[in-house]
Amino acid sequence: MARVNDDFLNLQSGYLFPEVARRIRIWQERNEGVSVMKLSIGNTTEAITPSIAEAMHKKIDLLTDRNTYTGYGDEQGDTALRNALASHYENEYGVMLSPSDFFISDGAKSDAANIQSIFSRSSIPAIQDPAYPVYVDSNVAGGHTGCYSTENDCYNGIVYMPSDASNGFVATPPEVHADLVYLCFPNNPTGAAATKEELRAFVDYAHRENAIIIFDSAYSDYIETKGIPHSIYEIDGAEEVAIEIGSFSKNAGFTGIRLGWTIVPEALKSENSEKGIIHKLWNRRQCTFFNGASNIAQQGGIAALSPQGRKECRSLVEYYKENARIIREGLSTSGLNIYGGIDSPYIWAECPDRMTSWDFFDFLLEKAHVAVTPGSGFGKAGEGYVRISSYGHREDIEKAVSSIKENL
Ligand code: PLP
Known about the structure:
The chain is of the alpha/beta class. 38% of the residues lie in helices and 14% in strands. It is globular. 47% of the residues are buried. The structure holds pyridoxal-5'-phosphate. Pyridoxal-5'-phosphate binds next to α5.
């Protein structure tokens, strides 16, 4: 008899966003005609920029002519896009990588979820708490963890790295051994950014423990503070111990278009693999399970990395960052303890009066008609906080902030 994968049965139900949606729905049924202002989702809202749109239009035109039509491309991605990404890292971050280190994908989420599959089942993951839920769930589904402990409110077999006000929401390397260390900076959900020294501590840990860092840089274009690294490879020696995952979603508005990349340097090695093997394994994995990113999206990606595209993307990011400033400053004046929102589109707000994350969620929905995301949904260290997203039209953000201020 066929059996389903027990590791998938080990996944706890995806509670956070369905529960947010359920509570909004119930509230709306009770309050007909009143709309809810949603600062709960990390989804882009502004139009893609002109030069990116033009490049994708051009590619569609080429596809409509049999003489210029192209079908499947390289699983690893268009050479021009891999070259453009390598130049981007060199020009903007001073990081030298080979174009062949870049694997183009349909976005950071799938790569962040799939990367664990090329590592041994016995690999111990270390994950920040709170964290983007994909890191935990993919390790559970990949069989790298034990069962969920309802008593401790966490999975056995994961080394949790708490990020809280005491460490400025930047976790420190664990005191125990881990094999796969997931880091995300600027962080979703806390909005914290890590300094060079803080990242260096993780690179040193990885060298010491023969661990691999999986660094999610999806929000790197939101960094404005001088000296904050945009890439883990700005830290010496990182190319031997780190994989980096990037995305066009949040800086170029590709959340629906879908395009990202993963860097697996040739220099990377592990306990049972010499240099080059992990790179080859990821190549093998991609060639077997993935048929390449959309060729239209890839043309958009190349345009996004051109000087004009970078200029346009910067102003797109600036738009959301201005939203973040409005939220941050607006809510700080109403007495909330506010974190993040400077090098990040996310504001991490402490719930007042010792409310739980869900209590404050309900309070804001009821009184201010604003939806946020309960911090506890990102891990137990997120309890007592909510995440406020700056993705939204300016007028909606301003209305939501005024409403929260009036009702706190
Ligand atoms: N990584 C982080 C930390 C995110 O917050 C998100 C989306 O919200 C992603 C990755 C997903 O990126 P993509 O749209 O490229 O799949």
